[in-house]
Write a structure and sequence with these properties.
Layout lengths: L5 H10 L5 E6 L4 H12 L3 E7 L1 H10 L7 E5 L3 H13 L5 E4 L4 H9 L12 E7 L7 E4 L9 H17 L6 E5 L10 H14 L7 E6 L1 H5 L1 H6 L12 E3 L3 H15 L2 E7 L5 E2 L7 H12 L4 H4 L3
Parallel strand pairs: 1-2, 1-4, 2-3, 4-11, 6-9, 7-8, 7-9
Antiparallel strand pairs: 5-6, 5-10, 10-11
């Protein structure tokens, strides 16, 4: 399955019987977070557990005219302890999505990655941006635009595996990946291009499983068929990339935010590499961004997608 819009994602969730998003929110006494959850709840999309300062949560819910239907509150005013308890809900199978509320990101991620009580995976955690761009035929995935500053080749392999695992879990059987750089020429003067070609060679050897991967590709070659044709570049990825693996955090961050502010894109942001995708969005992010991030975090748990239907 390939998604052309967030409307399709939300319909997929609505059409899956019993597949409502079950979110565990750490330090949930946050007006913006509760406002987004109220809206999603009214659309019959979400339920779950709010871990945080119960009196404050109830006060904010009253301001929002929300009866907290479908949500349980676990009172824990300490943000660090609230993060641990929110993570515990994932371990106990009581939620399929984890969301950061009014807590410092480093404290929140410490709870996620705790060796004894966390939900860490086997490798690194990385960020995945998923964008719906007006005029584009399908959602675009970008990684890593938020966590790994200057990834080594080994870290790029792990970032790639995190993104591929996620995409396959939501129905992308053979993702199309472009390892992007300034141009398509491999030069020892530009290590980014050398590593991009190394990743392509590893993909051709089967290291990343079922995937079409090419690089280095300039952005125009990755996403525009006409540009690829004019430059004589062919293949399943040329002009058709679904995932852009960026060389560093600056490139990914600038690309994603350019699409947000200049192209009117809507973006979901996820942290991958733990046992479930994690929603970590800015408090300033629009309500729609929080809702689509929640939706994308819950999508891998749908039985129909796990069964390959």
């Amino acid at each position: 399955m390939i998604y052309s819009s967030y409307a399709e994602v939300l319909e997929q969730l609505k059409d899956s019987a019993g597949a409502k998003i079950r979110v565990s929110v750490a330090a949930a006494a946050d007006w913006e977070i509760l406002d987004a959850l109220k809206y999603a709840g009214e659309q019959d999309l979400v339920q779950g557990v709010l871990v945080g300062d119960e009196p404050k949560i109830l006060e904010l819910a009253q301001e929002l005219d929300w009866d907290l239907s479908g949500f349980e509150i676990i009172h824990q005013p300490d943000h660090t302890l609230a993060s641990r308890q929110a993570v515990a809900q994932i371990r106990l199978g009581r939620a399929n999505s984890l969301m950061k509320g009014l807590v410092n990101t480093s404290d929140f991620m410490r709870a996620v990655l705790d060796k004894e009580e966390g939900i860490r995976g086997r490798g690194i955690v990385s960020h995945l941006s998923v964008l719906e761009i007006p005029g584009c035929r399908e959602l675009l995935f970008i990684s890593d635009a938020g966590i790994i500053v200057a990834p080594t080749l080994d870290e790029k392999k792990q970032i790639l595996n995190n993104a591929l695992d996620y995409m396959r879990s939501i129905g992308y059987d053979r993702p199309k990946v472009a390892v992007v750089a300034a141009n398509e020429q491999v030069s020892p003067k530009n290590p980014v291009t050398v590593e991009a070609r190394q990743l392509q060679e590893l993909a051709e050897q089967g290291e990343f499983g079922e995937v079409d991967l090419a690089g280095p590709y300039a952005l125009d070659i990755a996403v525009d068929k006409e540009s690829a044709k004019l430059k004589g570049i062919e293949g399943p990825v040329a002009g058709q990339a679904q995932l852009l693996l960026v060389p560093n955090i600056e490139a990914g961050n600038l690309l994603a935010k350019s699409l947000l502010y200049y192209a009117g894109a809507t973006m979901a942001g996820l942290v991958l590499g733990a046992k479930v995708p994690i929603v970590v969005v800015s408090r300033a992010a629009a309500k729609d961004f929080k809702i689509v991030s929640l939706a994308m975090s819950a999508l891998p748990s749908l039985p129909s997608l796990r069964d390959g239907n």
